[in-house]
């Protein structure tokens, strides 16, 4: 893992409120991904500036054990146009610890990396964490996803 700075950026997409309790997030986020792909959400987002899919975890009630929002979408130039049924979020400039999930993204490669992260002693801010599914995720059965965890 390495520490990186990221400037403020904007994401538009679809969202779900979930919790990690009793495996609820795995079910909710899997269903969100299915909806995202079925609706071809990236094609519906105006002002997208990056072809990567961005998954943002935000509005934590407290920490990763409490409810939070997951937003699947694309990075956009601004939040001036948010299609009906979608949400827009500003991810503020922050310091992040960057992790990489590798392997079969259609199975549990990403969730396994999150379990590792949850068990680490990180000084997290619980403002907005995110995953970027870029070119290295094009083969989801043998891909890579960058995970950014906001830290103090």
In short:
This protein has 152 residues and is of the alpha+beta class. Helices cover 19% and strands 43% of the residues. It has an 8-stranded antiparallel sheet.
Residues in helix, %? 10-25%
Gap from first CA to last CA:
15 Å
Question: Strands of the biggest beta sheet: in what spatial order?
Answer: 1-6-8-7-3-4-2-5
* Helical stretch tally: 3
Task: Tell me what you see in this structure.
The chain has 152 residues and is an alpha+beta fold. 19% of the residues lie in helices and 43% in strands. The protein has three helices and eight strands; from the N terminus they run ββααββββαββ. The protein has an eight-stranded antiparallel beta sheet with strand order 1-6-8-7-3-4-2-5. The longest helix is centred in the first third of the chain and has 15 residues, at 24-38. It is globular, with a radius of gyration of 14 Å. 26% of the residues are buried.
Q: Key features?
A:
globular, about 20% helix, about 150 residues, eight-stranded antiparallel sheet
Summarize the SSE layout with pairings.
Blueprint: E1 2-6, E2 9-18, H1 24-38, H2 41-44, E3 48-58, E4 68-76, E5 87-91, E6 94-103, H3 109-118, E7 128-133, E8 143-151
